[in-house]
Amino acid sequence: MNSTNEFDYIIVGGGSAGCVVASRLSEDTAVNVLLIEAGAWDDAPGIHDAGRFRELWGSEYDWSYTTTAQQHLGGRAVPCPRGRVLGGSGSINGMLYVRGNPRDFDHWQSLGNKGWGYRDVLPYFLKSEHYDGPGSEHHAHDGPLAVRQKSAEDSTGTELAFVEAVAQFGFDEPVMDFNGERQENGAGFHQVTVSPDGTRASTSTAFLRAALGRPNLRVATDALTTRVCFDGSRARGVQYSREGQMHEAVARAEVVLCAGAIDSPKLLMLSGVGRPDALREHGIDCVADLPGVGRHLQDHLITGVAYASRTPAEEAAVGEVGLFLSTPWDTGVAGPDLQFHFFRDLHLGPASLVGDPGAPGFTIAPTLLQPRSEGQVTLRSADPRDPARIDPRFLADEDDARALAFGIRMARELAHMPAFTPFRGPELAPGPDAVTSTELKEYIINHVETVFHPVGTCAMGHHSESVVDDQLRVHGVEGLRVIDASVMPRIVSANTHAATIMIGELGADLVRNGGRAA
To answer: In this model, does residue 209 exceed pLDDT 50?
Structure first.
C-alpha cells in the first residue's frame, strides 16, 4: 500500500460514478488510487433495505440541499437531496435503472462529442450490468451491478390496472423492456438496482466493496475536499479536511472530480476554475477562465395526480410501472419529454390535499424529462463548508408548465380508463376544481417537486460554455477531469442514475487509455 501522500490518481467523490472509477482504475496493480468521500461508510441498515429509501431523505446520509427561492414557483425553495455517503445519491435513491433513449446519446454526439453516441455508450452500460432477465443485445449478465426486471408477477392490482389503462387509451402494446429496443408509447415494468437477496445494489456495494482488498486502493471517508491544488495550470493534487486536520494529497497522473452536479462545479470554482469576476467576488484567484462552470443546470420536475382508492392500501414498492411519451410540441431532438411514474400510494400527493398519505390511494405522476429552463450553481462564499447556491430557475420557460399541465390531463384520462374502475375513488390532487390551464398552472407552481436528477453544470463540449471536452478533461488546465452527471451536455430522458454509472465506466477507460476509450 502506498504509505505516502502521493498517488497516481485522486478521485474526489465516492458516488454513483466515483465508486466505478475507483474500482476500475485500481484494477491496474501498477497504479495507486485514492478515493476521497465527504460522507461515511454505507453501513446503515436503512440504506440496504430497498423498501426504506424514503427514510434516507433528510437523514445524516443526505446533504439536504435546498434550492434558492424560485421566482416562478411563487418564491418556494425546493428540497434537493444528494447522497452524503459511499455510493452517493445511488445509496439513497429509488433504485430505478433506466438508461435513457438512444436519441439522447446520439444528440450528445451531434453536439460534437465524439464517442458518446448510443452505439458507443451501449457497451459501457453492458459492462456494468448483471441482468436477471433474458439475454439480448441490450443486456449483459457478467457485470457487477445487479439489475432486476420487475414483472406482472410481482406487481399489484393498481400497477396492472395502469398498464391495462395505457393500452385501453390506445397506446402500443406494453414495453417489455425500457432499456431495450423501444422506450416510448407503451406502459412497462421498470428495472431496478436490487440484488437477488432484496437489498440495494449501489455502486458502492457492486463495485467498491470488491475492490477494497486491493493494496493499491485507499478510501478516505468523512473527508471534505476543499480545493484542487495547481502548479500553474496543472492540477497537482487536492487539499481535504478530515478529523479536524487539513491534508494534502499529490496526484502524479490526474485528479478526477466525481462529486456530482452540485459539488463538482463548486469545487472547481473554489479552486479558481470558473468565471473570473464571480471568483473575484469571493477573493479567489482565477486559474482558468471557464464561464460555463456551474451553468446549464437541468433537472426533472414531477407532480402528482392522486386518487383515493376503493380497495385496501397497497404496500409501497420499489420499481413502479411507467410510461414514456412525447408532447405534441416535442422537438424530437432528444428522447421523449414526458415520463409517467405510477405509485401505489399517495406519497407524492400534497399533504394539504390528500390528507393521510398512508390512506388507500394511488398516484399517476407526470415528469418533465426535457426541461427548457436551465439554472446555475454558484458559490455562496469561499468557505468549502458552505453549500453552493442552487438556482435551477424552475418553470422559467413557460413551455415547461405547459408540458406538465398536458401530463396532468393525460394522467386524468388514464385514471378514467375502465381498468381503474374497481380502484378509483375521488380525485384528491389537484382535485376536480382544477380544470383550466390557469388552475392547473397554479397547482404546478404550488406543488411541483424535483426528482433529484441535477445534471449539466460541467457540460461536455467544445463551445465557449463547455467545461470538459469529450475526453472529460477540463478545458484550459492539465491533469484534471470531471466524471459524473455534471458532464451531460443535455439531460437524458430517464432517471439519471444508470447514465451516470455509464459515464463512470466510459470515463475510467478514458483515463486508463490516456484519453481514448477502448
So the answer is: yes
What is the DSSP-derived secondary structure letter of residue 517?
-
User: What distance in Å separates the CA atoms of residue 263 and residue 282, rounded to the nearest whole number?
Assistant: 17
Label residue 334 by pLDDT band (50, 70, 90): confident
**H/E element holding 218?**
strand 217-220
Instruction: Give the residue among 434, 406, 422, 454 at the shortest CA–CA distance from 349.
Output: 434
Return d(Cα 108, Cα 104) in angstroms, integer: 7
- The β-bridge partners of 478 are 234
pLDDT digit string (tens) for 142-152? 999 999 998 88
- According to DSSP, the β-strands at 245-257 and 480-482 are parallel
Alpha-carbon distances of 38 from 48, 89, 182, 200, 226, rounded to whole Å: 20, 13, 39, 21, 10
Nearest to 444 by CA among 433, 430, 428: 430
Q: What is the pTM for the complete model shown?
A: 0.97
Q: How far, in whole angstroms, is CA 311 from its chain's centroid?
A: 34
d(CA 293, CA 395): 22
- Considering only CA atoms, give the Rg of the chain: 22
DSSP-assigned states of every residue in 5-32: SEEEEEEE--STTHHHHHHHHTTSTTS-
DSSP β-bridge partners for residue 362 = 307
What are 63-91's pLDDT values in tens digits? 999 999 999 999 999 999 999 999 999 99
Catalytic residue among 48, 107, 453, 497: 453
Match domain 6-512 to its CATH number in 3.90.320.10, 3.40.50.80, 3.20.110.10, 3.50.50.60.
3.50.50.60
Q: Is the pLDDT of residue 3 over 50?
A: no
Interstrand relation of 245-257 and 6-12 (parallel, antiparallel or unpaired)? parallel
Cell of 137: 443485445
DSSP 90-101: GGTS--B-----
Cα gap 507→486, rounded to integer Å? 13
User: CA-CA distance, 411 to 86, in Å (whole number)?
Assistant: 37
Q: How far apart are CA 172 and CA 395, in angstroms?
A: 31
| Domain spans in the chain, listed from the N-terminal domain onward | 6-512
Judge residue 372's burial from the number of C-beta atoms within 10 Å of its C-beta, 0-12 exposed, 13-18 middle, 19 or more buried. middle
**Portion of the chain with pLDDT greater than 90, in percent:** 88
Q: Specify the residue for cell string 470531471.
A: 482
Mean pLDDT, range 434-461, rounded to an integer: 97
Grid coordinates belonging to 304: 402528482
Examine the residue annotation and report whether 190 is marked as an active-site residue of this protein. Answer: no
- Residue 304 main-chain phi, psi, to 5 deg: -105, 140
The pLDDT assigned to 256 comes to 98
- Region 498-503: mean pLDDT is 98
Q: What is d(CA 20, CA 144) in angstroms, rounded to the nearest whole number? A: 10
pLDDT: which is higher, 194 or 135: 194
